[in-house]
Design brief:
- The chain is built from 7 helices and 5 strands.
- The protein has a 5-stranded parallel β-sheet, with helices on both faces.
- Helix 4 links the parallel strand 4 and strand 5.
- It is globular and about 40 Å long.
- The protein binds D-ribose.
- The site of D-ribose has 8 residues, from helix 3.
């Protein structure tokens, strides 16, 4: 499974440690670090949500892990990208059930909320889960996708300034 990671300055240290630790723990995972590097304390979480959201939505990774200070802003922004189903999960139950029931494809973490061990456990629960084949879950996600199709149109011209900000 290919897992892509991205973070703003609030999440860069946790991301780095998470990728390092996971690399030494699970050789079945292909880990792709899309940055940022945390060097700019004025960087903006939506830039990284857009970068990772597009990467996952385009199929370049199977799932994504997005980290900011709380996980909240990153999740809000990522969910604006068509094809992304992101949520903050700071417990392993939600990180797994978010995939099983809701087909979550981006796990968001808050580096100011969780430590490295809970972050690792959350990612393991996330990548170890698969979307249920039960009709009730498929029906519900289909309704989510219908809402997205009706309301989620992206105007690319409006994104020019945003994509320019996601350089590191
Ligand atoms: C950055 O200081 C912080 O606001 C951001 O990382 C995140 O927590 C937003 O939700």
């Amino acid at each position: 499974m290919r897992i892509a990671f991205s973070s703003d300055h609030g999440g860069a240290d946790l991301k780095r440690e998470l990728v390092d630790r996971l690399a030494s723990m699970d050789s079945r995972l292909t880990l792709i670090d899309l940055g940022g590097d945390g060097s700019d304390p004025l960087d903006d979480y939506p830039d990284f949500s857009l970068r990772l959201g597009r990467f996952v939505a385009d199929g370049a990774a199977d799932r994504g892990v997005l980290i900011c200070g709380s996980g909240v802003g990153a999740a809000i922004a990522a969910n604006k990208v068509t094809g992304v189903r992101a949520s903050v999960c700071h417990d392993t139950y939600s990180a797994g059930q978010g995939v099983t029931h809701d087909d979550m494809n981006i796990l968001c973490l808050g580096a100011r909320v969780v430590g490295i061990e809970l972050a690792i456990a959350g990612v393991q629960a996330f990548v170890g889960a698969t979307f249920s084949t039960e009709p009730r879950h498929r029906r519900r996600v289909a309704k989510v996708l219908a809402i997205e199709a009706a309301h989620g149109q992206i105007d690319e011209a409006q994104l020019d300034g945003v994509t320019a900000g996601a350089a590191r």
